[in-house]
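Training component of the fellowship. As part of building independent skills, the fellow (R.M.) carried out the full modelling exercise for a liganded target. The chosen ligand was manganese (II) ion. The inputs are recorded below so that the supervisory panel can assess the work.
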Amino acid sequence: MIITLKKQAPQQEIDKLIQSFESRGLQVTLIHGDNYNVFGLVGDTAGLDEKTIQANPFVEDVTRIAAPYKKANRLFHPQDSVIDVAGIKIGGNEKIVVIGGPCSVEGQTQIMEIAQDVKAAGGDMLRGGAYKPRTSPYAFQGMGTEGITCMVNAREKTGLPIVSELMSANKLDEFVEHVDLIQIGARNMQNFDLLKAVGRIDKPVLLKRGLANTIEEWIMAAEYIMSEGNQNVIFCERGIRTFEKYTRNTLDLSVVPIIKEKTHLPIIIDPSHATGDWKLIESMSLAAIAAGADGLIIEVHNNPECAWSDGAQSLKPERFAEVIRKGRAIAHVIGREM
Ligand code: PEP
Ligand code: MN
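Fellow's submitted model of the complex:
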């Protein structure tokens, strides 16, 4: 961290600052310039807050050199992390994983049929929401525990590991017992208590990007989970809010190489929530694979017109199978399997 002090900063103030940094175990180098004095701080500055330092009237500027995240940082962990979800490996040069399933579990028959379709198409895992974060309190809120039970039965029948969204730490035990990959949804990306709660277990966590969050905020959300002990975090880009109205959100594919450069964790893409339109899912899926994504999570429904949520962005099983067929060809070009 570099701190620029105004020239008129009295010696007493300089000494006080040096002492406060040294008491935190930081190494302080002071450079006297003609117009400014500059402090160079070396050591673990993660606990320092730039804004607080800036509150000092003699401080002109504060620049952080190192990223504020440590556990997720590739700098301290150069090799790719490969996350194991019930035997399926995600990340590194492993097979690109495809997760398919409805936005919401609507009943045992529905999820069983879709699970079999996802499996037949070549999907690796089954998604299905039982606790739904809906914009309106009057919209379908999910089947709750019954929905999780339906998912468990579908896993038993097909062997597909299951992915579902956890909205509250109250249900953590239920998810630890039954769900293979715990999704933290976009709306909860900065629910820090929930992040800490999933940080204290060792089940893999699928961390979606918030609707309007920067990449650094997203990595810091992963850091919340990892700093509590759980290193099994997978990022999921699901589109961000922009001024654009022709799509539900704007798919930011540049995050794939950025996340891979900055962190050692895997990243998958959700083209369903990113676009809101089933017609865009195939092309965005292929682009995501080409960009280096470690997987896809796609909403699949056998009767999208009648889906209880997100039908417009759900693929029919045969279209889902087509995405996997074409995706395999793209994966081959970049030297991966799918
Ligand atoms: C979902 O996966 O159904 C969902 C609600 O996702 P997001 O949190 O990305 O909106
Ligand atoms: Mn959905």
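The panel noted the following from the submitted structure. The radius of gyration is 23 Å. DSSP finds eleven helices and 14 strands in the chain.
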